[in-house]
Automatic annotation (TrEMBL):
Keyword Chaperone: no
Gene3D superfamilies in the cross-refs: Citrate Synthase, domain 1, Cytochrome P450-Terp, domain 2
Database matches in SUPFAM superfamilies: Citrate synthase
This protein's name: Citrate synthase
Alphabetical list of InterPro entries matching this protein: Citrate_synth-like_lrg_a-sub, Citrate_synth-like_sm_a-sub, Citrate_synthase, Citrate_synthase_AS, Citrate_synthase_sf
Length: 436
């Protein structure tokens, strides 16, 4: 880890100085005029946060630092015999801004192995929860149960200097990333299987270990699918609900465990992370109603119209920022076209890909009629026998840990202050609007 620390240390001074320069010499400059609509509609598209790790372009999708997801997948180190970029490599890129070498990714995987043990109190806490507790609730509880071991918090109590914040943020980040696959596997096994978690294997990479511990499929294809999933969902800049919640809570210097617990509760919302669970439920429901009929564009058009008539959203379509098909969806589609074209659920997803955008366009109010990643992820997991859709947001969370932790490290490294936007009552907004 010394290598990663050296890279952050070198950059942190430079970036902090740059932030201070911007504040001192350009702090009063206007970058955007705010409107009443922006204040009411959740500050959509208002450039009002700093996030170093990734940037979301409405048409091109997310870039991890300077790299598109296609390039991340193509250029970053792979597992032996694999074709998918390792998520550990994505974390390295998000944190350091550099593409890691094979050796650096291997070193990171080894570091995570050293830290993977989950304290007994956390496993015991999970075992006190009723089995019908939603897996995301279980994960949030586990994150808080882990918090007592926060090195950031411990150092803060002992008077840690500001320039050391990122050092202990990194320590906590690595601990959380190392432990979360075992915690998630424990949640899966106790909620849906026999409660026994297959052994952690230090010969495997981070994602393959997670796939192994879920215990649903020993197929090498499943390990690749999990690597892809965990690499693709890792980061989506700072404004999405879970990253923003993590950032907000972290800005109060709550440690990474507290901050990510808050973010996890946001990820559990149906318009955000939970959409992939809802999406699979919608697909399975359609599949049931289709019976023996082949899923055609015409039939799927009917189902989509029916969902809209019932006043519901079609899960997995649309996005708050994207105005094009999500590259994460396209990469999952490419994977499915290689590994599971014969899967009936893939054929249904494929029919949706062609049928739903025209239906949403015709309805006329959706800003982005194209699929986001959630419209595909569930099919891949289902294909490999991970069938319990209530668990899917936990998969998302394991992956997103990489991005929010990288963001947390950088927020502390450049000394971002407590976040505290000004809010006004509607009446005041009216008065302000009249003045301009
Ligand atoms: N199906 C039906 N209606 C939709 C959909 C959809 N998939 N997407 C947007 N709309 C509606 C939306 O509810 C709103 O209606 P109203 O004016 O009556 O309130 C209108 O279209 C305009 O919404 P937009 O500005 O296009 O979307 P917004 O930025 O408000 O919301 C989402 C973005 C993602 C919340 C929205 O597209 C949605 O609910 N999609 C389905 C759920 C989903 O897939 N979420 C996953 C997000 C990605 N993730 O990974 O977290
Ligand atoms: C995400 O991955 O966080 C979602 O696509 C939602 C978002 O970016 O707003």
């Amino acid at each position: 880890m010394e290598n990663m620390k050296t890279k952050i240390a070198a950059l942190a001074g430079e970036k902090s100085a740059f932030k201070n320069f911007l504040l001192k010499y350009h702090g009063e400059r206007k970058i955007q005029g705010l409107t009443v609509e922006m204040a009411i509609n959740g500050a959509r598209a208002v450039k009002s946060m700093v996030t170093e790790t990734s940037d979301l372009d409405a048409n091109l999708g997310i870039a991890y630092r300077h790299l598109s997801l296609y390039d991340v997948n193509k250029d970053l180190p792979k597992a032996p015999g694999g074709n998918v970029a390792l998520p550990e490599g994505a974390f390295w890129l998000l944190v350091t801004g550099e593409e890691p070498s094979e050796e650096e990714v291997h070193g990171l995987t080894e570091e995570l192995h050293k830290r993977h043990e989950v304290p007994k109190n956390v496993l015991d806490t999970l075992d006190t929860l009723p089995l019908d507790t939603h897996p995301m609730t279980q994960l949030s509880v586990a994150m808080l149960a882990l918090q007592k071991d926060s090195k950031f918090n411990q150092q803060y109590q002992e008077g840690m200097k500001k320039d050391q914040y990122w050092v202990y943020a990194l320590e906590d980040a690595l601990d959380i990333i190392a432990k979360i696959p075992t915690i998630a596997a424990k949640i899966y096994r106790r909620t849906f299987q026999d409660g026994v978690v297959p052994a952690y294997d230090t010969n495997l990479d981070w994602a393959a270990n997670f796939a192994q511990m879920l215990g649903v499929n020993q197929d090498a294809g499943f390990k690749e699918a999990v690597r892809l999933y965990l690499m693709l969902h890792a980061d989506h800049e700072g404004g999405n609900v879970s990253a923003h919640a993590t950032h907000l809570v972290g800005s109060a210097l709550s440690d990474p465990y507290y901050a990510w617990a808050a973010g996890l509760c946001g990820l559990a919302g149906p318009l955000h992370g939970l959409a992939n669970q809802e999406c699979l439920s919608w697909l399975l429901d359609v599949q049931k109603q289709l019976g023996d009929q082949r899923p055609t564009k015409e039939l799927l058009t009917e189902f989509a119209e029916k969902t809209l008539k019932e006043g519901k959203v079609i899960p997995g379509f649309g996005h708050a920022v994207l105005r094009n098909t999500d590259p994460r969806y396209m990469l999952e589609r490419e994977f499915a076209l290689t590994h599971c074209t014969h899967d009936p659920l893939f054929q249904l997803v494929d029919a949706c890909y062609h049928a739903i955008p025209p239906v949403l366009l015709k309805q006329g109010k959706v800003k982005n009629p194209y699929p986001n990643v959630d419209a595909h992820s569930g099919q891949l997991m289902y294909f490999y026998n991970l069938k319990e859709q209530n668990f899917y947001t936990v998969m998302f969370a394991v992956s997103r840990t990489l991005g929010v932790m990288a963001q947390y490290i950088w927020s502390r490294a450049i000394g971002l202050p407590i976040e505290r936007p000004k809010s006004v009552p509607l009446e005041e907004l009216m008065n302000l609007a009249k003045k301009h």
